[in-house]
Specification:
Length: 130
């Protein structure tokens, strides 16, 4: 796996990183907090906590919810939520382009790894002990 970077927006009122952005995108895709949580192997409780955290961190909500009933409830991104995702992805891509020569260099100087132990990278030159 080549070297990559993660973008995280930090602010005194809260942080937005890859996990929250993935949740926003999943809510947008599924129209539901519970379906989004399932698609990310996240508990509904955790997803709801993150939704509440994001909605209170911004001056206006990034996720709108509607109460269930016969038609069922739902959730979606507000225009601000859509803009947060778009600006995060744009920043991520611009950062990746700027870091590309450095990431390529890291690929050259770091040992190759193989994926073991539930998706965690392990040094291919060891027997799996730490």
């Amino acid at each position: 796996m080549p070297a990559d970077l993660r973008v995280r927006f930090l602010h005194p009122s809260g942080a937005i990183g890859p996990g929250k952005i993935a949740l926003l995108e999943a809510i947008d895709r599924t129209g539901s907090i519970s379906a989004a949580a399932r698609s990310l192997d996240m508990t509904f409780r955790r997803a709801w906590f993150l939704v509440e955290t994001m909605n209170t961190a911004f001056r206006e909500p990034v996720i709108r919810t509607s109460v269930g009933g016969r038609e069922g409830g739902g959730a979606g991104l507000t225009p601000l939520g859509q803009e947060v995702v778009a600006r995060y992805r744009q920043t991520q891509e611009e950062a990746r382009k700027a870091a590309e020569p450095h990431l390529r260099w890291l690929d050259e100087v770091l040992k190759e790894t193989e994926v073991k132990n539930g998706g965690k990278a392990a040094d291919s030159n060891t027997s799996g002990t730490t």
